[in-house]
């Protein structure tokens, strides 16, 4: 386990508190979608709270390169953050990233340097302007009707994931059947593996974003708490299944027939999860 993973583990196990060099620092966990792979990436970052938004600073410890998480959120601004709560647990929250500019950026950068002078030192070490990013937390209380739009959008995203899954299955079926066009080229197996991995990464990122949105739904619809608890448990179960599938692809993914069989084990749980989620969230938001 690397340094980043150890900090993340400690953060989640201790309601957002960690020791070592970040002891006492205001940390949050920021999860972005990889701009090239779509794979989820989680990073601990120092933040400054401003009402319902969180400001983060792409200092990269004074490096001349922006951190990867910054490039990721510029490409895909919908992110998930995790923060400690008064209830003693870390809570995922959906947020939209906005890069600040001009006077607003400068004002918050100066504020952060006053609070933590190490950021001033980071600024001295590089010629780049260090970006300041506002993470605007999803809040449905001011616009309850938005919850219906989000529930419907989740259904559309599920439809897209189902379509991707169908494409993967069809490609595997053609390979298993020995279709000449499908089997052309020595890198067929690698193409299939990449296709499957891309699907897994998209699904993982989708569930992480949903976990953040669920927090806003739970605040607006307290009666949904048992449903959301079940959905999060299902996310965790599917995550373990996907991890096993990815490990299989790396270890034994050379036979399209075996890949097809392993994929079906993923599909059964996934379809049941999608159906339950759509039914419950659409019903809850029907009359808002």
UniProtKB/TrEMBL annotation:
One of its GO terms (cellular component) is plasma membrane. It catalyses: oxidized coenzyme F420-(gamma-L-Glu)(n) + a quinol + H(+) = reduced coenzyme F420-(gamma-L-Glu)(n) + a quinone. Residues 152-283 form the Hemerythrin-like domain. It comes from the Bacteria. GO terms for molecular function: coenzyme F420 binding; oxidoreductase activity. PANTHER family: F420H(2)-DEPENDENT QUINONE REDUCTASE RV1261C. Belongs to the F420H(2)-dependent quinone reductase family. This is Deazaflavin-dependent oxidoreductase (Nitroreductase family). It comes from Thermomonospora umbrina.
């Amino acid at each position: 386990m690397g340094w980043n993973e150890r900090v993340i583990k400690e953060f989640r196990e201790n309601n957002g508190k960690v020791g070592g060099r970040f002891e006492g620092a205001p940390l949050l966990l920021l999860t972005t979608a990889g701009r090239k792979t779509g794979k989820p990436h989680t990073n601990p970052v120092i933040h400054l709270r401003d009402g319902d938004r969180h400001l983060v600073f792409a200092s990269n410890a004074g490096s001349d390169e922006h951190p990867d998480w910054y490039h990721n959120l510029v490409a895909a601004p919908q992110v998930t953050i995790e923060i400690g709560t008064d209830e003693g647990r870390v809570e995922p929250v959906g947020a939209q990233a906005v890069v600040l500019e001009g006077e607003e950026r400068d004002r918050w950068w100066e504020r952060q340097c006053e609070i933590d002078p190490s950021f001033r030192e980071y600024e001295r070490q590089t010629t780049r302007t260090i970006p300041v990013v506002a993470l605007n937390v999803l809040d449905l209380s001011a616009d309850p009707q938005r919850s219906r739009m989000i529930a419907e959008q989740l259904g559309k995203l599920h439809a897209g994931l189902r379509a991707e899954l169908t494409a993967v299955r069809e490609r595997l079926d053609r390979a298993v059947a020995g279709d000449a066009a499908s089997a052309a080229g020595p890198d067929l197996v690698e193409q299939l593996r990449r296709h499957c991995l891309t699907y897994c990464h998209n699904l993982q990122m989708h569930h992480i974003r949903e976990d953040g949105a669920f927090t806003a739904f739970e605040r607006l619809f307290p009666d949904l708490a048992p449903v959301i608890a079940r959905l999060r448990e299902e996310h965790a179960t599917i995550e373990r299944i996907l991890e096993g599938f990815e490990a299989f692809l790396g270890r034994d993914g050379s036979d399209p027939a075996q890949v097809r069989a392993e994929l079906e084990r993923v599909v059964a749980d996934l379809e049941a999860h999608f159906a339950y989620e759509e039914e419950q969230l659409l019903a809850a938001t029907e009359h808002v």
